[in-house]
Structures are given as structure tokens and as C-alpha cells.
Give the backbone structure.
Amino acid sequence: MKATGKDYDFLIVGSGLYGATFAHMATKAGKKCLVIDKRKHKGGNVYCTDIDGINVHTYGAHIFHTNDQHIWDFVNSFVPFNRFTNSPVSISKGKLYNLPFNMNTFYQLWNVTTPEQAKKKIEAQTAAHQYAQPANLEEQALKLVGDDVYNTLIKEYTEKQWGKKASELPAFIIKRLPLRFTFDNNYFTDKYQGIPIGGYNLLVDGLLEGIEVKLEQDFFTDRDYYFSIAEKIVYTGPIDAFYNNCFGALEYRSLEFKHEVLPQENFQGNAVVNYNDATVPYTRIIEHKHFEFGTQAHTVITYEYPKTWKPGMESYYPINDEMNMRRFKEYETLANNETNVIFGGRMAEYRYYDMHQVIGSALAKTGRLFPDLSL
Ligand code: FAD
Ligand code: UDP
């Protein structure tokens, strides 16, 4: 029940993991929430479509991973997670390599079989690239793994993914990938990893249980109305759009997904296969049944094509280079001065957040707003 004059305590723009987590915690704290989303469904980019009994990750492969016990327990309280471990492979010039960069990859590249031999190879190749402060992704990658790994598995994939030269991209992006000298193909180093059993929609439904949600409602079609019905707005869309691009548009990377149902049991033998070569227009093919160890007689695959973002398209990745970060800081200053708008999530915070980080950000925010609330 609301104490103040307006209909809602919080109007939450976006039903992705930030909006859904925020709404859940605020409701638990006794606040009245309305969640709106411009899409036809809840869940933002983790939304799954059931195609012939297979949970298809509509907006690309989503593997949950975290080191944070608290976040792991939180998500598992809505839906149990399976023990899926992401171990993608990459195809480069017709040859297949294991990811992330590990002893299997080094064997495939150089025929080396011991960590000592692999380290010697890497040391010889990185010697010429010992930049004190790598200025960009290319320098960072060369410093870390040297020329062969860079040229075989990083350069073309990266430039295709981002539509920019690796020498123009921020160094931190490549630090997402582990480098290890064991025969371990686990893409992540986190303690916890998995896929919700039955798909991500169960997680989102659990978070939003009992909360009013209105779909196909674009905040910008009537922002005055939305401000009039709630004490505070929680905004999870792109931050520059909120301010009518007043400092200029931020850059994003967009994607296109092409889904196919195939009348065969197993198309590629793995959930994720990356395609490094610039001549292949997609970056990866996802075979969804493998996320949940499916045994169906058919399969569903998705080709992921990177695209230049233009107004009207979905923005999937922030491009956190110097120019964009300078512009983002200007928007952030405006956002920090708002008294009745909260900005959260991958696009509103303009951060290359994974799911656990988005949930962590929403829990941190609600923890500060409702300090008496326990999970
Ligand atoms: P979103 O999920 O984008 O939700 C925002 C919502 O706001 C959307 O539903 C949108 O429609 C709505 N909205 C925006 N503007 C308006 C408006 N004006 N009016 C109404 N509604 C609006 N993370 C991992 O941890 N592991 C992975 O394996 C992984 N893989 C990924 C693969 C891809 C291809 C992508 C793009 C991301 C991946 N992520 C992964 C990241 C993950 O998707 C995000 O961290 C997380 O889903 C972001 O949640 P969010 O709530 O911030 O944003
Ligand atoms: N990357 C690469 N080769 C690969 C996979 C990833 O060079 O086969 C680089 C690329 O720059 C990519 C970054 O590592 O943008 C992060 O990859 P990740 O798989 O974490 O990206 P996401 O799933 O977020 O698209």
C-alpha cells in the first residue's frame, strides 16, 4: 500500500535483470512498483523463446557465472541452475582451437605438450611487446599472448565483433579471457557457473512475481505521464537517449540473430562455436540444446552477426573507448544530479556488464535505498 499521493513508488523502465532485480527488492521493502518494457516480453536480453521444446537464447548465448556466493544463492532461490560449463571452440582458417587460451590451444598451435614449453613460446612471442601501459586491445593482447595467438584467434574476431581496429579498442576487453597453463577449457574462472534449469524466463518470472508489468510501452512516448504516476523512475535504457543525446550520441555495437531449426540431433557438438575469420560474416553459432544437455531429435542454432548500431536498432554493447567515455561522463554528471531518477544496468551505466554484475549493481542500489532489507 502506498503512503504518498502518486500511484507508484517506483516506475521501472525495463524488465531486464536490473529492472527485475530492483523491482523485486523494492517490492520486498514494501514499495509499490510498475515495470514497463517496450518489448513484447519480459527479461530484456536474457529472454528465451521456446522453439519446439528447446530454450533458445533469443539475444545470444547467456551463461551465468559469478564468484559471489550471495548472488549465486540469490538467483538459485528463484530457479535451480544446472552445471553447464562454457567451453567454446574457435575455428580459424579451417582449423579448430580450444578457448580460452590454455594448454590445449598451445598444443593445437605449436604442438607443445608441457607448460614449460608453452611458456617459452609465449615468452619468445611477447618479448617485443612489453608495453608498460598497453594503450589498446592490440597491445594488451600481444603483451599477454604474443603474435601467434593474437593473429590466429583474436585480431579478426575482435575487429569483426566491434567494427573497429583492435588498435582503437580499449585494452580491458581482452582481459575478459583467461590465459592458463593447464588443460582446462572452462571459459570462466568463477567459482559458480550454470544455466537456469528450464531457461532464464523462470528467473525473470520469479523476480517479477506479484509485480505489475506492462509490455510494449515505450517510456519516451509519454515520459511526462510516467513521471506523473510515480515518485521515482528507475531507468535501464541507454543513458544518452534519456537526455535526448544532448551531448551527442554514445556509440554502441548492435547484433542480428538468425535462428534456424534443423532436423538433426546434433549440429556442432558444442553450445558455442566462434568463427575467427574476417571472411565469415558471423562471430559465432550457438546450438541451444547443449546449454541444458537436450536430447531432442532436432536442434536449434543461431548465427550471431555484429552490426553497426544506428538509431532505432537495439544497442547490445557499449563501446567504452576514450571518446565515448568522455561523453558518457557528461551524461553521468547529469544523472548523478537527478533526485527522482535512478540509472542502472548495462546501457544506463554504459558498462560492459555481465549478468551477475547487473544483479550486483541492482542489489547494491536497493541495499543503500532500503538498508533494513535482508535478502
Ligand atoms: P537489458 O537486458 O538490455 O534490459 C533493458 C530493458 O529495458 C530491455 O528489455 C529494453 O527493452 C527496455 N527498455 C529500454 N529502453 C526502454 C524504453 N524507452 N521504454 C521501455 N523499455 C525500455 N552476461 C553474462 O553474464 N553471461 C553471458 O554469457 C552473456 N552473454 C551475452 C551475450 C550477448 C550477445 C549480449 C548482448 C549480452 C550478454 N551478456 C552476458 C550480458 C547480459 O545480457 C547483460 O549483462 C544483462 O542482460 C543486462 O541487463 P539489463 O537489465 O541491464 O539490460
Ligand atoms: N575474443 C576474441 N576471440 C574469441 C573470443 C573473444 O578475440 O574467439 C575477444 C573479442 O575482442 C571479444 C572479447 O574477447 O569482444 C570478449 O569476448 P567474450 O566472449 O567475453 O564476449 P561477449 O560474450 O561479451 O560477446
